[in-house]
Write a structure and sequence with these properties.
Blueprint: E1 2-13, E2 20-31, H1 34-43, E3 49-54, H2 58-69, E4 73-79, E5 87-93, E6 96-103, H3 111-125, E7 130-134, H4 143-155, E8 159-163, E9 177-178, H5 182-188, H6 204-217, E10 221-225, E11 231-234, E12 241-243, H7 256-269, H8 274-288, H9 299-305
Helix pairs in contact: 1-7, 3-4, 5-6, 7-8
C-alpha cells in the first residue's frame, strides 16, 4: 500500500456545503501496509524482501521507488495492470485528520500472478530468517498461498509470523507467532467483542480468547495488542504475560501494529525469548505513536527509551 498525507490548514467553511475548506500546504508519501512493516525492519538494519502486488500506475511507481531508496528489495513486487495500487489518502488540517479516502481492489489476484508469487516465495523463503504475513484483506493472501509458504518455511525451519485481518479469516495453525489486536483476536475465535477490563490479567473474556487461540491454532506466541492497556502475550505452558503500554504521548496510532510485529519478529530472529521480544516491540510502538503518520523507530531512539 501507499500512504498519502495531504497537509493543510482550515480557515473557512465551504459555501457549497457545511464542510471545511482545506488550503493544501504540503504532500507526503510513505510506504504503507506490509511495506511499512518492511520499512520498520529496515530502519533497524534488517535485510528485507517484499512480496506483493501493485498496479501499473503512478502510486505503484512511487511505492516501488520509495522502497528501493530505503534499501528494500523489490524484486517480489508484481505488477497487475488490471488493479490499482492500494492508495490511502489522508487529509490533515491543523494536525487533525479531516477525511481519508481509499483507492483499492479487494478481488483475489489472478491465477497467473498467484503462481508467480508462489514460485518467488519458494526461492526466497529458504534463504531468510523469518517470513511475516500481513493480511489486510486486499486479495493477495489467500489460504492456498499461506499454506504453500508455510510448507516451505517449516521445511527450512524459518520463523513465521502474521498480523491477521479481523474480516478475512485464515487458518494460521503452527505459526511461530501472531500479533492481532483485541478485536482481531476475538474475531479469530468467532467470539463477540466485549468491553475490556482495566487489568488484562483479570479480563476473563480476553484470557479465554487467548487460551482458545493457543489450543485451536498451536501458534507458539500469541501477542495481543490492547491499545492503552498495552499488550498480553500467551504461550503454551506459561501464564499470560501483561506488558503495560509504553506510550508517553499519543499523536498518531496509524502503523503502530506494523511496528509491533516488525520489532517482535526482529527480536525473535536475534535470539531474544518471546517475553523480551514483546517488551522491545512495546517500547518501539510507544515511540512511533508519538510521531505523525506511518512512522518507524531508529536504533538510537529505542536505546534511548530502554
Amino acid at each position: 500500500m501507499l500512504d498519502q498525507y495531504v497537509m493543510g490548514r482550515v480557515s473557512r467553511i465551504s459555501p457549497e456545503a457545511p464542510v471545511p475548506v482545506v488550503d493544501v500546504q504540503s504532500e507526503k508519501f510513505f510506504p504503507g501496509g506490509a511495506s511499512n512493516v518492511a520499512r520498520n525492519l529496515r530502519s533497524l538494519s534488517a535485510k528485507v524482501i517484499v512480496l506483493g502486488v501493485i498496479g501499473s500506475d503512478a502510486a505503484g511507481r512511487t511505492l516501488s521507488r520509495t522502497l528501493c531508496e530505503q534499501g528494500i528489495e523489490t524484486s517480489g513486487l508484481f505488477k497487475d495492470p488490471a488493479r490499482p495500487t492500494t492508495l490511502k489518502t489522508r487529509i490533515i488540517a491543523q494536525h487533525q485528520q479531516v477525511v481519508r479516502f481509499d483507492r483499492e481492489s479487494r478481488l483475489p489476484v489472478s491465477r497467473l500472478l498467484y503462481r508467480r508469487a508462489v514460485d518467488f516465495a519458494k526461492r526466497v523463503i529458504r534463504e531468510v530468517d523469518a517470513v511475516v504475513f500481513e493480511d489486510y484483506g486486499k486479495g493477495f493472501i489467500q489460504q492456498e498461498f499461506l499454506d504453500a509458504c508455510m510448507e516451505i518455511a517449516q521445511e527450512s525451519r524459518v520463523l513465521t509470523l502474521a498480523d491477521p485481518n479481523a474480516h478475512h479469516h485464515l487458518d494460521y495453525r503452527d505459526l511461530t507467532g501472531i500479533t492481532p489486536n483485541r478485536n482481531e483476536a476475538f474475531g479469530m475465535v468467532r467470539e463477540p467483542i466485549q468491553d475490556p477490563a482495566p487489568n488484562p490479567l483479570k479480563d476473563a473474556s480476553l484470557l479465554e480468547v487467548g487460551n482458545r487461540l493457543l489450543a485451536q491454532t498451536r501458534i507458539r506466541n500469541i501477542l495481543i495488542t490492547l491499545g492503552e492497556h498495552g499488550m498480553c502475550l500467551f504461550r503454551e505452558g506459561h501464564h499470560p504475560h501483561h506488558i503495560p503500554t509504553a506510550a508517553q504521548e499519543v499523536f498518531d496510532v496509524s502503523g503502530a501494529g506494523d511496528t509491533v510485529i516488525s520489532i517482535f519478529t526482529l527480536g525473535l530472529c536475534a535470539g531474544l525469548d518471546a517475553v523480551a521480544a514483546a517488551h522491545l516491540s512495546n517500547q518501539a510502538a510507544g515511540i512511533v505513536v508519538g510521531k505523525a503518520g506511518t512512522a518507524t523507530v531508529t536504533a538510537a531512539e529505542l536505546l534511548s527509551r530502554l
